[in-house]
Design the sequence.
């Protein structure tokens, strides 16, 4: 007779059923777009009217079910997709980083750091590498998790503790990073689209949250290290399974040579960028808008992400022998674009939803009405940001995609909070916290089955409940500590990123 499931296990089962019942993200946004059309028709009939805060003129819902609305939909489908802000930026960033990944550069760097870590710092280094690995897409999951398990096992510690520590960094600290990632580009584009509901000239750069998220790396690393050492390791105890410790292979001579070449190319690129940025008349400075924020480096950040991924990746590949010809470079790009096919499908429907939302004026109406209610409650920035963090963390349990969630939430909360005086960059910071903290406890996260597979190498009976129970302390600790860090950041009045305000001017 099977043991009766615990209340927690029953909760997990219900969560899994709810998540699995949700349609494909593309279908979800198709339904949302249809809902926007229907709501626009209803509100246009009611005659609901608000005053646009920027233009000081009345705004009514535009009926997309009208003949004029139908014509707009027919003619707008293609421009909506082509002109969708995050699309081109993401593709360019990923093309550059794909070479760094497929040449083996990113995996070699990660192995070097983890293997070189002193025994007493092993946990901290594993969590840190996990947090910073999200720039490289799924490399952290595929490489770091099994490597961490093997390292912990060889050090006489429970291998599941190694998996938990690296998973806490890779997925629980997904938003934090010392480098700009394609996700930053995607979310900044969505925030900008949402902000332009009120201010057509508003710009949100991919560096909008850089200061806050770079500092968050150390918060998440500290939390992950403490939870691993004080909670997870004592709970797991001594490993008594049958899996033998796996040998950790050192970097080969070819890989070392590749790393040297990549390092030299990176230094040359960095020197060129600094030479263009530091002088007042540098070639990356804009005479009409001098300074770092107005420089062509910040404005052309997508280009530099591409170059800093491409050139060191090619240099490593040539030296290590993983790139034999120019064809290998293009094959790496092609393989990555093949993996992005699903993303392109979803983005097509996201672009239509965002466009419909803007055309109907629902964003302005919701923002004005919602801001009126919140202003009457006099909550202040801290309760509002905490509320957005908790809302995002809850939705994240059933909708895993970071961009999909923000595509739904940004058109509502960004303009609403703008009317309350809070900048889109601050709103996005709160979203990033909530978007990361519950990744590690939902079985609906896309890489959760992969994590479970790695765990079952050492504990064959490990299931969803096993991993969720193992990761729950990390999730709760990150939620509390990271939210507290956000509150302190806001109270101190620090900008979330270069040129990014906390409050509306």
Sequence:
């Amino acid at each position: 007779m099977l043991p009766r499931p615990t209340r927690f296990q029953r909760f997990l089962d219900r969560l899994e059923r709810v998540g699995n019942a949700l349609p494909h993200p593309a279908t979800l946004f198709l339904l949302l777009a249809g809902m926007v059309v229907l709501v626009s028709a209803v509100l246009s009939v009611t005659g609901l009217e608000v005053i646009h805060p920027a233009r000081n003129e009345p705004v009514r819902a535009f009926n997309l079910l009208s003949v004029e609305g139908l014509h707009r939909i027919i003619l707008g489908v293609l421009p909506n997709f082509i002109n969708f802000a995050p699309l081109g930026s993401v593709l360019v960033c990923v093309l550059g980083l794909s070479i760094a990944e497929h040449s083996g550069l990113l995996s070699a760097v990660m192995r070097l750091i983890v293997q070189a870590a002193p025994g007493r710092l092993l946990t901290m280094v594993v969590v840190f590498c996990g947090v910073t690995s999200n720039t490289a897409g799924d490399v952290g999951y595929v490489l770091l998790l099994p490597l961490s398990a093997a390292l912990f096992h060889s050090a006489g510690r429970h291998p599941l503790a190694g998996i938990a520590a690296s998973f806490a960094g890779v997925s629980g600290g997904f938003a934090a990073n010392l480098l700009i990632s394609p996700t930053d580009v995607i979310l900044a584009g969505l925030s900008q689209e949402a902000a332009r509901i009120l201010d057509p000239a508003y710009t949100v750069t991919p560096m909008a949250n850089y200061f806050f998220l770079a500092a968050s790396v150390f918060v998440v690393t500290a939390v992950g290290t403490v939870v691993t050492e004080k909670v997870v390791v004592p709970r797991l105890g001594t490993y008594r399974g049958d899996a033998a410790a796996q040998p950790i292979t050192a970097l080969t001579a070819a890989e070392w040579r590749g790393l040297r070449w990549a390092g030299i190319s990176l230094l040359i690129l960095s020197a060129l960028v600094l030479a263009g940025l530091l002088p007042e008349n540098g070639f990356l400075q804009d005479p009409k808008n001098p300074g770092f924020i107005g420089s062509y480096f910040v404005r052309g950040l997508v280009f530099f992400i591409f170059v800093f991924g491409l050139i060191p990746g090619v240099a490593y590949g040539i030296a290590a022998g993983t790139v034999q010809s120019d064809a290998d470079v293009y094959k790496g790009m092609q393989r990555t674009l093949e993996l992005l096919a699903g993303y392109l499908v979803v983005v097509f429907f996201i672009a239509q939803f965002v466009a419909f939302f803007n055309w109907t004026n629902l964003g302005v109406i919701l923002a004005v009405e919602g801001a009126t209610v919140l202003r009457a409650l006099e909550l202040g920035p801290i309760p509002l940001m905490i509320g957005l963090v908790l809302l995002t963390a809850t939705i994240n349990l059933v909708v895993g995609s970071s961009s999909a969630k923000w595509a739904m939430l940004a058109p509502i909360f960004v303009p609403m909070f703008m009317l309350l005086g809070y900048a889109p960059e601050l709103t996005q910071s709160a979203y990033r916290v909530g978007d990361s903290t519950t990744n590690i406890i939902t079985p609906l996260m896309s890489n959760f089955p992969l994590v479970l597979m790695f765990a079952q190498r050492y504990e064959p009976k490990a299931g969803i409940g096993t991993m969720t129970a193992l990761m729950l302390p990390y999730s709760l600790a990150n939620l509390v500590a990271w939210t507290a860090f956000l509150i302190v950041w806001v109270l101190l009045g620090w900008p979330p990123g270069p040129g990014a305000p906390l409050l509306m001017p």
Q: What stands out?
A: The mean pLDDT is 84. The longest strand covers residues 49-51. The first helix runs from residue 7 to 21.
